[in-house]
Amino acid sequence: MDCIFCQIVQGCRPAAKILENENVLAFLDIAPVAFGHALVVPKKHYARLEDIPIDELSAVISVVQKIGPAVQAAAAAAGYNVSLNNGPAAGQVVPHLHFHLIPRRTGDGLQLWPQNRYDEGGLEKMAQAIIAALG
Ligand code: 5GP
Ligand code: ZN
Fold first, then answer.
1. Fewer CB within 10 Å, N side or C side of the chain?
2. Contact (CB, 8 A) for 72 and 106
3. Where is this motif: Histidine triad motif (predicted)?
4. Which carries the bigger pLDDT value, residue 112 or residue 12?
5. 100: annotated active-site residue
6. How much distance in Å is there from the Cα of 45 to the middle of ligand 2?
7. What pLDDT, on the 0 to 100 scale, is given for residue 112?
8. How far is the CA of 34 from the centre of ligand 1 (A)?
9. pLDDT at 92
10. Neighbour count for residue 123 (Cβ, 10 Å)
């Protein structure tokens, strides 16, 4: 078992746990973007979003929804980001599906996304390409 989040789930690796139920574990990120940064994982190992059965994903997102306001309150924040890095190219370092819950304050300076512009017709073309990929 070389997955560090499986080790945390199994109790072989320490973690500051926040909430645990039959299918899901939430704990604090060891290197937080902001204090209170939490991770929510399914207890079973799935690498990517598209791998997890929808009922287990539902259990995971239920915990995200439940702990979000508590993380916000405990961190004295005004909001929070929920994110999931899906695949190494998207910044996923730990290959065990997890949601990040990152407390935010107005004006905290954290810039998440650059914004681009489509060329003329590019927006519609991209929508059609995605629809085609859906099959
Ligand atoms: P990723 O880049 O895969 O989306 O995020 C992985 C996250 O796991 C990172 O934010 C990192 O700080 C956190 N992390 C890595 N190793 C450990 C660990 O041993 N314990 C905890 N609690 N978090 C970890
Ligand atoms: Zn794992």
1. C
2. no
3. 96-100
4. 12
5. no
6. 4
7. 84
8. 13
9. 98
10. 11
